[in-house]
Design goal:
- The structure is a single chain.
- With about 475 residues, the chain is of the alpha+beta class.
- The chain contains 9 helices and 26 strands.
- The longest helix has about 30 residues.
- It is elongated and about 125 Å long.
- The N terminus is likely disordered.
Length: about 475
């Protein structure tokens, strides 16, 4: 074996050893060179999640909504960038926050009810008769003046009153014709007779007037009475129409419709005066009837006197519409319910139409709020706090002795430490130091975002961190 062969054979193991050392070195320094490589790769909504969570270096080269300059006070260790998929997974919602007034509350159950004496209209038979026609069906809506029922009148008193009125009207016609005839004869012959007929005319006119008033009390209107005189026939049937809307003065700007709640008669049924024909309801304004504790009486009375805004929301429904409405306490009951020991209070609830459709000749609607719906009312328990930052409870997260929110800053979120003044099951109140006012904060997902930030930093994650029990 010559010298060259000897060198070539001996150098093989050396080259292999050097290569192995290089591979091991690359593996040990992966954490240093990997971000540099990933920086050069294109970022897309589908693959930007891993890149943003793994890179805690300077984000000044990222396109931000507020420009490319470095953000004031920006800290990469507390910044988090979410991919489009992460936004959806977290169910992230953002909102610009401004200082507002907050009052500590307790939640009590409530129910939507009709307003006694206002919401319902009971239709009664004005006279004794037989139902010959029903114009509507239960469940539809109508407007004032629309026909509802037709009655064939059999009321003996009404028939007698009409007959007497018609007889007096005809006697008046006879007297007037006689006066007209005598006026054409020589004054010396007919003068005295004319005076006598004038007296008779006045007596009959007084009788007709009295009988007309009697018919009005029976329930006939002026047009129907005039028709009796004009046609010289008695009124044989009567159409019952929907009455005008009540002029309550507190909800005239709302949409009014009569909803046919009940039809209590059948065709051919004999009814007497005062019998219920049907029930109409106008639900443009309802009550929220709350049930508080006896100890809350003073606070409720104060809320009513000072017109405090009370939060009212539906209990979770299928459409998840539990948005709070701000209402004022209308009045507080003057007694404690002997069975439930609850103190009832009431709030006016303006209503609106959620559905309006026409089927054949009938119109059907559905109101947003209906009697019987379960509600919850938040009663103030202390004087309101002014100029505070009020957030949903999912917008804050607890980590040790700190509370954090996430402030949107371009394409990422910065974790900000805050002073939590108060929290309950739904709300967190943050001290307003002027730094958060007018900024955009995450309204949900703070707990998940904090976990992602801790994973990004490589810290151990406490599975219970940030939970509010």
């Amino acid at each position: 074996m010559n010298t060259n062969e000897s060198r070539s054979t001996g150098s093989g193991p050396v080259i292999i050893a050097v290569a192995l050392i290089g591979v091991v070195g690359l593996g040990l320094t992966y954490e240093r060179w990997s971000p540099l490589v990933s920086r050069g790769s294109a970022s897309t909504p589908e693959n930007s999640s891993d890149e943003s969570h793994g890179d805690s270096r300077d984000h000044s080269s990222h396109p931000h909504a507020h420009g490319d300059a470095a953000h004031e006070g920006h800290d990469d260790a507390s910044a988090l960038e979410l991919s489009a998929a992460a936004w959806k997974n977290v169910g992230l919602r953002t909102r610009i926050v401004m200082p507002q007034t907050y009052a500590r509350t307790i939640t009590v159950p409530a129910i939507v009810t009709e307003r006694p004496g206002r919401s319902q209209v009971q239709l009664t038979a004005p006279f004794t008769g037989i139902v010959t026609q029903i114009f509507l069906i239960e469940g539809e809506v109508i407007q004032p003046g629309e026909p509802m029922f037709t009655l064939r009148l059999t009321h003996e008193d009404l028939v007698t009153a009409q007959r007497s009125f018609l007889q007096a009207a005809q006697e008046l016609d006879v007297v007037q014709n006689e006066i007209k005839r005598l006026s054409s004869v020589s004054e010396s012959i007919a003068g005295r007779r004319v005076v006598e007929q004038e007296y008779e005319k006045q007596k009959i006119e007084a009788m007709v007037h009295a009988q007309r008033q009697g018919l009005l009390l029976h329930g006939l209107n002026d047009a129907q009475i005039d028709a009796i005189i004009k046609t010289r026939t008695l009124l044989q049937s009567l159409t019952v129409k929907a009455p005008p809307f009540a002029n309550d003065g507190d909800h005239q700007e709302l949409d009014h419709v009569y909803h046919v709640q009940l039809i209590d008669v059948q065709r051919g049924q004999h009814v007497t005066a005062g019998n219920t024909l049907g029930v109409l309801a106008d639900h443009c304004m309802l009550y929220v009837e709350g049930q508080a504790f006896e100890d809350d009486a003073d606070r409720l009375t104060q809320a009513a006197q000072e017109s405090w805004q009370v939060s009212v929301a539906r209990v979770a429904t299928v459409d998840n519409d539990s948005t709070d409405r701000k209402l004022q306490v209308f009045y507080v009951a003057d007694h404690i319910d002997p069975e439930s020991r609850a103190l009832k209070f009431y709030l006016n609830l303006p209503n609106s139409l959620a559905r309006d459709e026409q089927r054949d000749s009938h119109r059907f609607v559905a109101w947003k709020y209906r009697p019987g719906q379960r509600m919850q009312v938040k009663i103030p328990t202390a004087e309101p706090w002014d100029n505070q930052i009020v957030l949903p409870i999912d917008a804050v997260v607890e980590d040790g002795a700190e509370w954090f929110v996430f402030q949107q800053n371009g394409d990422h979120f910065d974790r900000k430490s805050v002073h939590l003044i108060y929290r309950d099951r739904d709300t967190a109140v943050i001290e307003n130091d002027g730094k958060l006012s007018g900024t955009t904060l995450a309204m949900s997902g703070a707990y998940q975002m904090n976990l992602a930030l801790k994973n990004k930093a490589g810290d151990g994650v406490d599975p219970h961190a940030g939970h509010t029990h």
